[in-house]
Amino acid sequence: MFKSLKEAKSQEQKDKILSELQPVITFASIAMDECDFGTGLEAGVALFCSGIKELENSALRNLEVAYTLLNREEFSKIVQVHMKHRRKGPDMSILSESK
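Now predict its structure.
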């Protein structure tokens, strides 16, 4: 699904794939409500590692909740800051943003 979403040419195609992916995200959230925090963490990591802009909010939400429920608030803070300054490519310096 991630590959299809990355390769989607139109917003209509993206919306179709996102609607197919939404139940998986919802089920991960339900699993966390049922004390299966690992499912939410795994889903959040998968969404995060996809690097797809449209999935960033879902990734962040899953990771924040999972880390909080696992008493790992520090990791939640790290992922929040990372998402604010996320970059791709070889130039990873935060100093290059000010150019």
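The chain has a mean pLDDT of 89.
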